[in-house]
Design a protein that fits this description.
The protein is mainly alpha-helical. It has 1 helix and no strands.
Length: about 60
């Protein structure tokens, strides 16, 4: 098979596939970044929740 015999439609399909893969990688990267940010913020969120619970207990709101 000669390289000049590749159809334009086939080349467009390959380019489209590569762009879709690139977009999926970007989306997965963004989701993982948010997940890691939430995991990094988890100890702070637990601390805030404990302070709120203790404050509510001391004021007899629980």
């Amino acid at each position: 098979m000669n390289r000049a015999e590749i159809d334009t439609d086939d080349l467009l399909k390959v380019v489209l596939l590569l762009v879709v893969v690139w977009l999926l990688v970007e989306i997965v990267g963004a989701v993982l970044e948010v997940a890691f940010w939430l995991l990094d913020a988890l100890p702070t969120l637990i601390g805030i929740a404990l302070v709120v619970l203790i404050a509510l207990h001391l004021t007899d709101r629980i």
